[in-house]
Amino acid sequence: MDHQRAAMETIAAPLTYTALPAKVVFGFGTLARLPDEVRSLGCGRALVLSMPEQAHSATALAEQLSNLCVGTFVQAAMHTPVEVTERAMKLVRESGVDCTVALGGGSTIGLGKAIALRTDLPQIVVPTTYAGSEATPILGETQDGRKVTQRSMKVLPEVIVYDVGLTLTLPPALSATSGMNAIAHAVEALYTQDANPVTSMMAERGIQALARSLPLIMRNPREEAARSSALFGAWRCGVCLGSVGMALHHKLCHTLGGSFNLPHAEAHTVVLPHVAAYNLPAAPEAMARVAHALGAPDAPQGLFELARSLGAPTALRDIGMAESDLDRAADLASASPYWNPRAIDRVAIRSLLDDAFFGRPPKSPA
Ligand code: NAD
């Protein structure tokens, strides 16, 4: 009886939870459902979007959609540059496009969202990485070298089609960093100001799924069960990012990507263990859940070891950061007050960045 009581999940505080609307199709071979999904939106003039590297998949999808598709735009680029969106918008207007189908990672999905922001056109997204953008009402756009992020329900995709088969080709190095990027959403969701039992449950299970499947993917990138588990985990982590606020980690990575042009998923991978160490004293329960999900005795070390075991980068100096920029990065990350479980302290952030720069194991304050 006592152990039943101990295992009982109680909701101590009144709970308000708003689920984000989205139709989600998950499985193998689900790409075959695309024509039905376009029709069920009441559409028949889809524009297929991709990055240049995935143009062959976009063309194949356009052929599959046949007369439900008016063409492809395969120039999506990292950080959603506004000039690329404007080129796509010309095609949208000239071709009478009535929905977009984004096939790719966060960069391609970002382009679909940028078009939706300007037109309100419905979006079908087919994610091929673990970044999680498909499940969020968040869009980051870059103009004149500045990345500006906004939240708007206009950009939340209407339909997500997860086809696990499309992730089998995601190279192991990208799978590792993209998976760590997903885990970062879940870690911050566990300690954020508006954390709630629903997203926390998804966060814990999302971390667990990725921590278990990524090592198997490194050994065999075509292992279907591991790929399925990783993508399912990434979906849960994406829902966390879309549902609750983020804190120091996302702020730091936004700074490193936006102001120093560091690669997105790699920056998340390197910084996460250090932010976990920084926040550990202020969020012990959340960190205990992270550790439990990782199957590690300690969350910061567990995250560091996971990245290292996947062969992912663990030092900012290895992903394009210059040591002379660390002071400015600390200034930017400490500017404009924002919520974090532990107060933002410029000296401690500078020291965190130093550890991350040299790839030292994370240090928690005594
Ligand atoms: P990406 O979309 O930039 O893709 C990285 C590379 O992987 C590209 O070369 C792409 O062609 C290739 N690729 C993708 N899937 C593949 C596959 N299955 N097989 C082979 N190659 C594949 O990478 P990303 O990390 O998914 O996205 C990063 C961008 O997404 C950043 O701009 C970031 O800011 C944004 N993002 C936004 C949100 C949000 O909620 N708004 C969330 C996460 C990321």
Could you characterize the architecture of this molecule?
The chain is α/β, with parallel strands linked by helices and 366 residues long. It has helices at 2-7, 34-40, 55-65, 82-95, 106-119, 172-191, 197-219, 224-243, 248-260, 264-279, 284-294, 299-309, 326-334, 346-358, and strands at 23-27, 46-49, 69-73, 99-104, 123-127, 138-143, 146-151, 159-163. The protein is 51% helix and 11% strand. The strands form 2 sheets. It has a 6-stranded parallel β-sheet with strand order 1-8-5-4-2-3, with helices on both faces. It is globular. The chain binds nicotinamide-adenine-dinucleotide.
SSE inventory with pairings:
Layout: H1 2-7, E1 23-27, H2 34-40, E2 46-49, H3 55-65, E3 69-73, H4 82-95, E4 99-104, H5 106-119, E5 123-127, E6 138-143, E7 146-151, E8 159-163, H6 172-191, H7 197-219, H8 224-243, H9 248-260, H10 264-279, H11 284-294, H12 299-309, H13 326-334, H14 346-358
Parallel strand pairs: 1-8, 2-3, 2-4, 4-5, 5-8
Antiparallel strand pairs: 6-7
Helix pairs in contact: 6-7, 6-8, 6-10, 7-8, 7-11, 9-10, 10-12, 10-14, 11-12, 13-14
Bound molecules: nicotinamide-adenine-dinucleotide (NAD).
Nicotinamide-adenine-dinucleotide binds at residues 51, 53-54, 78-79, 104-108, 110, 128-129, 131-133, 136, 138-140, 166-167, 169-170, 174, 178, 241, 264-265.
